[in-house]
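Subject: LPS-assembly protein LptD structure
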Amino acid sequence: MRALLSPAHAALLAATTLGAGLILPVTAPAQMLVPAEGRAAENDTAMLIADRVEIAGDNRLIASGAVEVLVDGIRLKAQTITYDASADQLTIDGPIYMVTDDGTILVASQAELSDDLQNGILRSARMVLAQQLQLAATEINRVGGRYTQLYKAVASSCTVCASNPVPLWQIRAERIIHDEDAQQLYFHNARFEIAGVPVFYLPRLRLPDPSLERATGLLTPEFRSTDQLGFGIKLPYFITLGDHRDLTVTPYLSSNFTRTVELRYRQAFRNGDIELNGAITQDDILDDETRAYLFAEGAFDLPRDFELTFDIETVTDNGYLLDYDYSSKDRLDSAIELQRVKRDELMTAEFVNYYSLRSTENNRTQPTLVFDSTWERRFHDTPLGGIVTASLEGHGHYRSSEVDDEGRDIGRIAATFDWQRDWVTPNGLLIEAETALVLDHTGISQDDDFDSTVTRAIPAAAVELRWPLLKSTSGGASHLLEPVVQLVYSPDTDDVPNDESTEPELDEGNLFSLSRFPGGDQYESGLRANVGLGWTRHDPAGWSMGVTVGRILRAEDLGEFDGYEPLEGQSSDWLAAVELDLPGNVGLTNRALFDDGFGFSKNELRLDYANDALQLGTSYIWMAESEAEGIDEDVSELTVDSTWALSRSWQSEVDIRYDFETDRAAKAALGLTYAGDCVSVDLSLSRRFTSSTSVEPTTSFDLSVQLAGFGSGNSGNAARRRNCAG
């Protein structure tokens, strides 16, 4: 029952508590709100609620029984509070539970605090920061509302239960100071313990509290062991450079003599950001040579909806990226691109510098400098109906070789006009007409097999017929059968070198296209029919299946695709694709290219499965040997990529690529992650079996241990925190 006070006693309590800033309930159920002296804002008032309030003498106020105080965003609960107006001091008997305005929790058995709760001493106390890191001490001293000093203290983010009172890790210290404004923890004479066993001692230690997002200091070290480099350790040091920039410096030392410094620089601007990653090394893999790499990228929003992006990729030698596991790329590209995308308009310009790390490729004979620009616009409501698309394109590439043919350079400009319109007949037949005209001019240098300039006009026309037939069964299943025939004609044109369209494909995406060449230097010509049949079933039981079959039939073989087996000849290979979706997040996809005698040139099978615990992706690909596509021998590979949550805390990862032609794995990787309430452990083991003149097969082992509770990014596994039952 709440205390009932007479008006005279209420006035006395109000007058007595003006200096303390308390608001007292003086009647039940009503409360009297009294502003503190000198406090004008409504939020600066205070409130005291208790089962019993009494006055002792002229200066003491005693509240007892479920006492609760709210002042300046701080909430305090206790069994008894005695306020001494002459000393402006609160004497509090516990159990005490206090929550500050930043979410810090303080629990104690007894306390002596100032009237605003900003200064004082708490005994047999415990403090919890951001519901992650808990600190226990024989005594806690609050100073100025900013500093909290803990004496004979221990800190840990591990769950401590009665059945297991010793945490997995803890830091014992003679004194810990928490600076709330700087969001830092300072440890004096600190001793780090694992399962109660001392591991190392530090006279001084500074760590960020859980609420701090970024601060200068050491990051989690990483241990790494490889066949070539031996056992090593990485010690990243993070440096803040203001609110919008930072630098991470990571020394890497290993037993097989490597001295490496890794660098990462990031900066955010008002309209974009940049990031640079690099390293510089001296090791015994390449004696007396300094090895280095730099990868940089950035993106900026420009006026009038333009976007500028760039990336830089460079390395001193071909094996450096793989030796240190910085990247698996074997072709580097440095590019700058300006782009604007609107609903009916695209503008883009890009300049790229390529550099190949492959031992089978010569950078002097490869197009290392490439420029592309495109402007494309769609027009609706034209006099003929339908949609008109107009585009202008520019392209150029340069080889550094000066040898004829091997050093061929190309420059091209092209204008394209395309018109499309479709109709639906009363019986549901879809008719689409398309016409296109390409006007281009190509300049060719350092190749005597071609004219120095070639100007072409390339018209094309197509008519496509689709007849979707829908049927529903009595059981609720639906079937969609859609035959498609497309007739296309475009005349033969003058030859230009094939530099951009060296890898034509046949798939569902381009079966009904005017051309199967991916670049702008080659265009498919002649009279041809693209035919296909699609069937889809949706079953009420929750599964669906789709099948697509098609091929290209030509009136005459013009030899445009000689060497590309799926597309060459008067008739292309058959394209068959099957997609099956089953209940329980199971997906099966198969795409195949085969001739009339079922001789396969390509087949790809993929199986995907996902649930709350397991994500599995497997694929098998087979490709026949093709000199034109640069495939020296048949390819037969199986890839498995899976993530399995073994429990709430344990997760495993498997990544395998197996080559059946060589009868060995090309790559294998195994990862194991533990994310507990107070520590995260990442363990990975990988083996690369491939080799070349610049790299050797190698096995790598990586270990990273991260303690939760220090910095906002180290929160541990929230599902297990403070849960003794689990």
